[in-house]
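WARN retry 2 of 3 for item q-0093 after timeout on previous attempt; input resubmitted unchanged.
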Amino acid sequence: MTETVRIRLRPMGADIEARRGTPLQDILFAYGVEFPCGGHGRCKGCRVRVLEGSLPVTPAQERMLSPAEREAGWRLSCQCRADGDLTLELAQWEAQILADTSSFAFSPANGFGIAVDIGSTTLVAQLLDLTRGEVLAVRSALNTQARFGADIMSRVAYAMEPGGHAKLVSVLRTQVGKMVSELLEASPVPASPLTDIVLVGNSVMHHLFCALDVSPFSHYPFESGTLAQKDFTARELGWETPGNPRVRFLPCIGGFVGSDILAGIFATGLHESSDPLVLVDLGTNGEIVVGNRDRIICASTAAGPAFEGARIYMGMRAATGAVSAVSVEEGMLVCHVLGNVPPRGICGSGLVDAVASALELGRIKPGGRFVDGAPSLMLCPPVKISQTDIRELQLAKGAIAAGIRLLIREFGISRDDVARVLLAGAFGNYVDTGSARRIGLLPFASDQIHPSGNTALLGAKMALFIPPDRLDTLARSIQHVSLSELEGFQDTYVEEMLFPDPSDLADHSAP
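OK item q-0093 returned
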């Protein structure tokens, strides 16, 4: 028996050689297969269909897959190993990853630098000529840690398992190091002048990259005492980078509010604004900032992974085959599918649109139930949303809306006083703001809401040109608030889970 097996992926045409016995989870993640539950067999996000060869049916698959699905060859790939040659059916997913093309003011410096935005789902890195502020090369990828769990808390749980922490640290450092090498290979400039690499990310990504203990994030009050900037040399990280440049992960602010939000504050100029601004990063862990040049307060709220398609019955990333937008035309639901291919799932922006459209058609009650009592609503066969999907969206949007409402109150203003609401991150820039307002996710007038791109990456690039202590000083000046400790948190959260009445959506705001 040979030590390797061959796996053919259809219809994408990839042929892979792998060591016999390798978990399919380790093989298929790079080809777009999702593992939302971290490979524990608790969802169906990693389904593949066996066309040739065989994969045994485990108890988890008997529980999650219907007899008809099992008979048709469907398997949960997270429960399987490559013990023989296989031909598997899956569709290629090409995810949308938000980079940054913004221009910004800077003072020229010598050499070259790299800025990296380490997200829970995606990574984006850019190589800059520091004399001109010009981006010379860009690399992006899905975060390889995602095969151990789709959301932050899944990573924290995995990190606390035996060997889990070391594994997550290793795969992240290896992936970022590879991206750095690819940027240098893609650039016509010599690698030796590379002097500085700046990293930003949420608090958990900060701790995992820096090999810090993440257990404080597993229990109340979810605070770590090691939020400061961490500095390394490339060699200390195991990277063979010419010139052995400095690598620094910018400081976090508090709780789950990381250096990506600090970079966003700096990039948007919120800390210099005379008017109060709101910065919102919509993701599995939603971060909210309210402030101006006089005072800045921030908080995070566990929105859950619904905005990224996880824990949704037919959820997936914003990638080929995903229903990314839904509208109402002549009383009917009309879907837009990424890649102009047959639909195979729905991403976060599509889910928000679908619920907003169903509300407009009177098919969903303010409390979230389908009007006709049906268990699901068909969008475009075979894609549908279930009653459970709507509840997941309500939990996510309720957490964000409650956080915004409470933080604005804590700042001492009303929503009408907010000059601009800045949406950061991929979901915030792809979601239709009209739909977000219709479901009550963004309780502001339409002219207040401004998608702002990848502010984390922009801020990381700007940090290449400024003294490190400037961002340290800014981070220390920001007040981190625990939403759960604010008066009325639970009542506000429950209220914000409801979908608003259309009469409340006129372009004015209440306190």
